[in-house]
Amino acid sequence: MKVIKIDKTEWTGGIDKSRAKYLLFGPVKDKDVQNNERYIFKQLSADQFPDMEASDTVLSPKGTVFPQTEKMLQVSLDPSVPDHHIMKRVDTDYSPRAVIGIRPFDAKALTLVNLNFDTKDYRDPYWCDAYQATTFVGLAVNKPSQFDFSTSMGSSPFGEEGLDVLLVDNGSEFLAKVITDKGQSFLDAAGFNKSADESSAQKIEELKAAAEKAVAAKVGTDNLTKRTILELHEAPFWNDIAFAYINCGTCTFVCPTCWCFDIQDETKGKSSTRFRNWDSCMFPLFTLHGSGHNPRGEKVQRVRQRFMHKLKYFLDKYDKGTMCVGCGRCVQSCPVNIDIREVCNIMNNYEPKK
After folding, report:
1. Distance between CA 148 and CA 156 in Å, rounded?
2. Residues 292-351: pLDDT tens digits?
3. Which of 2, 40, 205, 333 has a C-alpha 20 to 30 A away from that of 89?
4. pLDDT for position 219
5. Where are the chain's structural domains?
6. Are strands 23-31 and 37-43 parallel, antiparallel or unpaired?
7. Cα of 44 vs its chain's centroid, Å
8. Is residue 36 scored above 90 in pLDDT?
């Protein structure tokens, strides 16, 4: 294991140096429409630096690879223009970029989304090109929040899956654990090359053990594979879970593993653009057919779909654990207090009547 020591007095200088080779993204303080302060991930301007003291961001950095709105194709409707009425992929900058300060559970979440967009049968070029161009520089969570239940969902405050570098805050310095060659290349570009002493690896393990012990919430998943899809689908508890649901879709937009999207064409004058926009399975219009039929027209059907997808369908299809990394954003953001931890425990403990 290679560990690099980065003195915090040298941090901004190294980040500035890395701009020569990377587009940088990181957490910064922002304000919402009600003027409340919050942290978001965004592309950093030349005078901005990632806020390494930031609390968990409202949205995950998924949007750095899978934007909320993304131009896909453009077409000219002018008959005098060559190749008119032929849609072409929009030119997009996929030069190397680095996402700095991503939490370990968010990095793991991106590996789960990748299972959907990069398959043997289909490769989504927009996702894949962005994902492959990105270096993920993670920041370990020394003090997990009350909403964190990552250790129950196959992740950890110090998890490494999906990361190229794991930064560990050690007071006056960062200890940078090099995980991949991409991670080493970023550290080289930033000029971070001071090897840490042998005690640093032990220090990382000590901080990791303390952080994992501090994760208070425990969720059971061990029985989910034992129940069939129909047993859980037809279980009697869904109406109770869905009672408070208000169709807002907040949980899906803050979730780092949701990948639902809609396609829309916009035409102005003699040009047209096709966009991909985030959508939500929690909205009634998401499954509305052109015929007027809606297979999930009732709110209980949509609530069941969300949790069955996260905790059962994905689990059975990919055998990679649940489609939840325990970040806790949906728990924190839900205006009617629907808690995925409680739902998971209900599903996990359910015993169908014989």
Report:
1. 9
2. 999 999 999 999 999 999 999 999 999 999 999 999 999 999 999 999 999 999 999 999
3. 40
4. 96
5. 3-214, 229-349
6. antiparallel
7. 19
8. no
Residue showing tokens 């009350």:
146
**Nearest alpha-carbon partner for 158 in 213, 111, 212, 196:** 212
In DSSP terms, 74 is beta-bridged to: 88, 273
Stretch 16-43: mean pLDDT: 90
Partners of 4 in the β-ladder = 176, 195
pLDDT tens for residues 170-186?
999 999 999 999 999 99
Largest CA distance in the chain: 71
- The model's pTM: 0.94
* Three-state secondary structure string covering 108-177: HHHHHHHHHHECCCCECHHHHHHHHHEEEEEECCCCCCCCCCHHHHCCCCCCCCCCCEEEEECCCEEEEE
CB proximity list for 70: less than 8 A, separation 6 or greater? 126, 275, 276, 277
What is the C-alpha separation between 99 and 61, in angstroms, rounded? 8
- In the chain, the amino acid numbered 77 is L
Report the phi/psi class of residue 101: left, alpha or beta, with left for phi > 0 and alpha for psi in -120 to 50.
left
**In this structure, which amino acid lies at residue 191?**
G
Q: pLDDT above 70 covers what percent of the chain?
A: 100
Is residue 121 over pLDDT 90? yes
Q: Is the pLDDT of residue 31 over 80?
A: no
Which residues on neighbouring strands pair with residue 166, listed in sequence order? 138, 177
Q: How far apart are the C-alpha atoms of 21 and 40, rounded to whole Å?
A: 23
159-189 core/surface letters (b: 16 or more CB in 10 A; e: else): bbbbbbbbbbbbeebbbbbbbeebbbbbbeb
**SS3 state at 123:** strand
CA atoms of 191 and 174, how far apart (whole Å): 14
